Each structure stands twice: as C-alpha cells, then as structure tokens.
Amino acid sequence: MAKSKIRPGFFKVANLKRMFVASFFGTHLAPQFIRRAESPSDEALGGFDYLVDAEYFNSLVEQNTGLKRPAASVLINNGQIAHERVIQQLQSMGHNLGIERQLTDIDRITVHHTVSGQNPSIASVNNWWTNRSDGSVWTRAGYHFLIRGDGSIWQLVPIHARSNGAGNPLNVRPSPNIRSIHIAFAGDFRAPALPTQEAIDSFGFLCELLLGNSQLTNLYDASAHIVGHRMWRNGGANDCPGVPRTTYLSWV
Ligand SMILES: [Zn+2]
C-alpha cells in the first residue's frame, strides 16, 4: 500500500482522533486496518479519511504504551453506553429525554463529587435533584454517570441529553453543560479523603470507554478534555470534585 499522504492543517477537528490513530502508529498498521477514502464526496468533505479497526488499535495501544484500553469501542445506543459494567438506571428521569445535543458537541468530561456517603441508593441520588433544598425544579440528575464506593457505575442521564451539573458564571461558550459528560464520585473528597480503589478503577475504565469511543469524535485526550467542576467557576482548592486535577488525571 502506498504511504499515506497527510497534509498538515487539512483535517477538521472532528477527525483528530482518527488522525492520531493514523499518525501515532504510522507504518506499524497492517494495510487491512487502514484505508484511504477516495470517493469524491469524502474528498469534498475534507480529504483523506482513515478507518481503523478498534480492537486492533487498542491492542497496539497496549503493546506500545502499556495503557489498558477497552477491548473495543462500545456503542452508544439510545444515549446509553452499551457495556455490562455500566448499569442502566435511566428510569423515569432519563429514558424519555429526547436528543438535545449531538455527540460531536461533547468535548469535555466534567468530574464531580456528591458530598454524600459513598454508597447512596440511586433513588436517593435522583431524589436530591428533583427535590432540591433551594426549591428549584429539576427533571433529571446533575450527572450522566455516578460511581459509587463499591465500584459500580450507574448511568442516570442519556448522553444525548444535557445534564445541568455545572453553572456557567464565567460565561464560557459553548456552555459547560452543552459540552460535558458529567461524572460524579459518590462521597466527599475534600482533602485528605480519596475514593475507594474500586471507584478509582471504575472511573479510569469509564473515562477510557468515553475517550476511546468512536462516536465521540471530539472527546479523546485525557489531559485536555477531563476537567473538574471547579474549573468552570474558578473554584477553590477544595471545591468540587475535592481532589486535585493531577490526582484524578492519574486515575485514567
Ligand atoms: Zn460538582
């Protein structure tokens, strides 16, 4: 196969994840796992395109970096991450929520802690949001995912719907909630407390599922795309999610 021609600056941002795949492994890729799209329509849309087999890609990542990645890029089906470790709990609060954003709108994972016990019932978590002490009415949880101290991962809101987990006092555009998948650790992690090892492992696993997902084309870089709630509001050191950014980034 002829060596790929990559023209700098020729890729749309949405293609960066695939560009990374193609450039990082370059000549190591077997020809059957990479192809150049040559149809006129693809050319008109931005030139070269690379399609890489997810399982093969992930095995290469592990061999070359030691980074453990999901066995394959999982599907997002009707807003739900389709993986056995992600427990579906959309129920009445989430399952009827329509499509409020495109998956390509998503370019941040925003991390929270609940300032609660580490193993709350899911009903009680949903209840916090729909019966808020300030009297405001919420129709859904403020997190797409909740990770409990026992390591269980619960999806509370479909990914195609907004979860209003962050205010926007800094007036960022696009807004934090349009851009974010919100993930909360159940518990209170203002220093020196940390989540359980089970919760930490599940957080890393969930982030890898999302960053490696081929449908989330603008979410792929842990150091650039994972932020804490406090970063949307210039919060203090102990502000949500409690632990420092360097700490939770080290868990991915
Ligand atoms: Zn928060």
Provide structural commentary.
The N terminus is likely disordered. A hairpin with a 2-residue loop joins strand 1 and strand 2. The protein is built from 9 helices and 8 strands. It has 2 domains: about 55 residues, no CATH class; about 170 residues, Peptidoglycan recognition protein-like (Lysozyme-like). It is globular, with a radius of gyration of 19 Å. By secondary structure, it is of the alpha/beta class. Zinc ion (ZN) binds next to loops.
What labels would you give this structure?
252 residues; alpha/beta; Lysozyme-like; 2 domains; 6-stranded mixed beta sheet; two-stranded antiparallel ribbon; 11% strand; disordered N terminus; binds zinc ion
Taken in chain order, the helices and strands follow as HHHEEEHEHEEHEHHEH
**Strand count:** 8
Q: Quick check: average pLDDT?
A: 76
**Oligomeric state as shown:** single chain
Bound molecules: zinc ion
Helix fraction, binned, reads 25-40%
Largest sheet: 6 strands, mixed
Which fold does the CATH topology of the largest domain refer to? Lysozyme-like
- Class of the largest domain in CATH? Alpha Beta
Number of H- or I-type helical stretches: 9
- Write out the CATH superfamily name of the largest domain: Peptidoglycan recognition protein-like
Query: How many structural domains can be distinguished in the coordinates?
Result: 2
